[in-house]
Amino acid sequence: MNIHALSIKIYYEDTDAQGVVYYANYLKFFERARTEFLREIGYDQKDLMEQGSIFIVREVAVEFKKPAYLDQQIKVHTQVLKVGKVSFDFNQEIFSTEGDLLCGGVIKCGCLDLNNFKPKALSSKLYEGMKSLL
Length: 134
Fold this sequence. Notes:
The chain is an alpha+beta fold.
């Protein structure tokens, strides 16, 4: 299984008053990592939008293990878990540079038609490309 890794530095804007990453920002880190993962395998979301498709998050299950802190470097691991005709699921985990699991989750996504926001099948190229990552 292919695992994509994205390094992210924690900035002041990512933290609360105590210098700890605000919990909702982990979802931003996951989003950034999924976007870069898809870009690296040849699927730019802007191009997909121009083709009339958009990706949405339909369900999120996240477990927080340990905090991340201001100025810390983290690594977000992204892996495709499941691919359907209109949906795809990711497993994502955030690690410290020391290898500690900070946060993990399953993000379930779908493809919609940009014009009517109804479910739309993934293009055959995208479907086969994502299946090859399983």
